[in-house]
Amino acid sequence: MKRHLFRRMGRFLRPQAPSLAGAAALAALSGLLALLVPLVAGWAVEAIGTGPGAADLTAVLRYCAAGLGAAVLSAVCSYGASAALVRVGQTVSYTLRKAAFQQITQLPVRYFDTHPAGDLISRVCYDVDTVNAALSTDLLQIGTSLLTVIGSFVMLLMLSPLLSGVFFLTVPLSVLLTRLQMKHIHPLFRRRSQELGALNSFAEERVSCQRAIRVYGVEAADLRQFAEKNDAASETYYKADCASTALGPSVNFINNLSLAAVSVFGALLYLGGGLSLGALSSFVLYSRKFSGPIRETAELLSDLQASVAAAERVLDLLDQPAEDGDLPGAREPGKLSGAISFRHVDFGYDPAHPVLRDFSADIPAGSMVAVVGPTGAGKTTLVSLLLRFYTPQKGSITIDGVDVRSLSQHRLRELIGYAPQKGMLFSGTVAENLRYGKEDADEEELKAALSTAQALGFVEGMDEGVQSPISQGGTNVSGGQRQRLSIARALARKAPIYIFDDSFSALDFKTDAALRKALARDTQNATVLIVAQRVSTILHAQQIIVLDQGKMVGKGTHKELLQTCPEYREIAESQLQKEELE
User: Fold this and answer.
1) What is the C-alpha to C-alpha distance for residues 77 and 478, in angstroms, rounded to an integer?
2) Residue 416: CB atoms within 10 Å
C-alpha cells in the first residue's frame, strides 16, 4: 500500500475525526472487555478445582456472570463502533463521489476525448462504493483485530512467558508470508478495477448505440466482443480473488501449528507443575484470540487491496489538471458587440499533426458568417477554440479586440449561444432543457426561441406543451426535433454571438429554409457563425470561409466564391442545382 494514498485520503477523513475517535474508543473498549472473558474463564476453572468437592460454586457463578457481562458490554460497544463507522463511510463516500463528479465538470474537453464515459462512471460509482466498504467494515475489523492480538499477546506473556515462545516463531513467519503475498495481490486488484472500467465503458457505449447495432445486424459480433471483455474482467477477478483467498488458509495453517504446539507444551507444563489448570485454560483461550485475528487481518488486508486500488483510481481522477483557468485579472465584460478575429492560429490535438495552420480571419460584429469545407478541414476545431475548450499552440483569438484568454471563461461562454451538431437533450421537461440556455427565461421567452427554431408547432402539439417530458438523450423526439430544441436552447440565451455547428443537418429543406429566414430576422443584431456541410444552408451568409486541410482557401459571398475558389465550387456543384450555381 502506498503511504501517500492515506495522506491524500486524509482531507476526506479529517472532518470525520470526532466520529472516528468515538468509534476507535468504542472499539478499544469492546476489545478490552472481550479480553477479560478468557481471564475470568480461567478463574472459574480454578474455582471448580481438580479434587472431589473442591468446587466453589458461588465463585464459579460470580465469575461466569462477570464473563457474561463483559461479553455483552463488548458486543454493545462493538455495535456502537460499527454504527459510527458506517456513518463515517457513508459521509466520506458522499463527499468523495461529490468531489469526483465536480472534478468531471472541471476537466478539460480533451480528457473526455481519451477517457470513455463508462470508465468515469465506474470510478464515481463502483470504486467509491468499494472505498466505502473498507471504511465501514474492514478498518473496524482490522483495528479490533490488532488490538485483540496485542492484548492477547500481553496476557499470554503474563500467564506463561515460556509457553509464549511458540508465537515468537510462528508470528514472524505469518507476517513474512503476508508481506510476500501482498506484493503479488495489489497489482491484481488494480488490474481488476481497470478491466471492470473497460467493461462498463463498452456496455455503456453499446447500450446507447442499440439502433445502429440492430440496423447493421451485428448483434452476434457485439456479443462476441462483450464476451471477450467480460472474459477479461472475469479472469482478472478470478486471479485477484484467488490470490487473496489463498492468504487466509496459508496464515491459518501456521496458526493451527501454533495452537497444536501450545496444547502439547501447555499440557507438559501443567503435568510438570509449571502451570495451573486455570492458567492453562486462559492461555489456550488467549491463544485462539491471538491466532484468529491474525488470520482475519490477513484476509481483510487482501480485501483491502481492492479498496486501495479503487481509491487510487478515484484519486487519480481528482488529481487530473482542471480546464485551463482564467488569467489573473481576467475581464468579465458586461456586453460584447461580437467582432471576432483569428490571427495566425495554429492548433493540433497532437501538436505534431496540426489541424489548423496559420489561420486568420475577421468576422465583423452583427454579421452572419459561414464556415464550410470537407470533413476534417478544422471547422469544429475553430468553434472549440473560440469557446476555449482548447487553447491555440500559436496565434490569438480576440472578441472586440480582447484576447479570449484574458476574458473570464465562464462569462465568455455566457455571452455565446451554442448549438452543437448532436442536439443533446437532458432528462426533464422541454422548458428545463431550454433554460440551460437562460436559467430565468419566462415562458414567453421560451416560446419566442422555439418559434425562431421552428420548434413551437411540434412542442405545442405535445400533451403538456413546454412542460412535456423529455427522456434522457431526447430519445422520445426525432433527430430533427432534437436539433431544433438545441437551437432554441441557444437562442433562449439572447446572446451577442451565436454558433451553430452543423446544427441544421437533420432538418428537411423546408424547415431549414424557414429557420434560416427566422434566424436572419431575429438575430440581426448578433454575430452568427454557422458551420455547415450543406451549402444551401449558407447561401445568403454575408461571408463564407472555406477551409481545406486546416487552411483558409477562400473567403467571400456565395457568388464570389463560385468564381474565385475551386474548392468551394466543387462542394457547391456536388449539392446544388445548375440554376443555383449561376
Assistant:
1) 60
2) 22
Give CA–CA dist 74/532, Å, rounded.
73
Q: Measuring CA to CA, how many Å separate 3 from each of 8, 9, 10?
A: 9, 10, 11
Residue with cell 474482467: 233
Q: Give the tens place of pLDDT for each residue, 99-109.
A: 888 888 888 88
For residue 209, how many other CB atoms are within 10 A of its CB? 11
DSSP annotation of 442: -
Which residue in 417, 416, 389, 388 sits closest to 330, CA to CA? 388
| Amino acid residing at 100 | A
Q: Average the pLDDT over 251-259 and give the result.
A: 72
- The Cα–Cα gap between 215 and 268 comes to 81
Residue 271 has φ and ψ, to the nearest 5°, of -65, -30
What's the rounded Cα separation, in Å, for the pair 94 and 448? Answer: 41
Q: How far apart are CA 482 and CA 436, in angstroms?
A: 14
Q: What are 341's strand-pairing partners?
A: 362, 398
Residues shown for the chain: 582
Distances (CA, A) of 361 to 300, 429, 544, 546, 552: 64, 40, 11, 11, 8
Smallest CA-to-CA distance from 82 within 139, 151, 149, 12 is with: 139
Chain segment 529-582, per-residue pLDDT in tens? 999 888 888 888 899 999 988 899 999 998 899 889 998 888 888 887 765 565
Cβ atoms of 363 and 391 within 8 Å: the answer is: no
Q: What is the sign of the dihedral through the CA atoms of 192, 198, 199 and 204? A: positive
527: DSSP letter: E
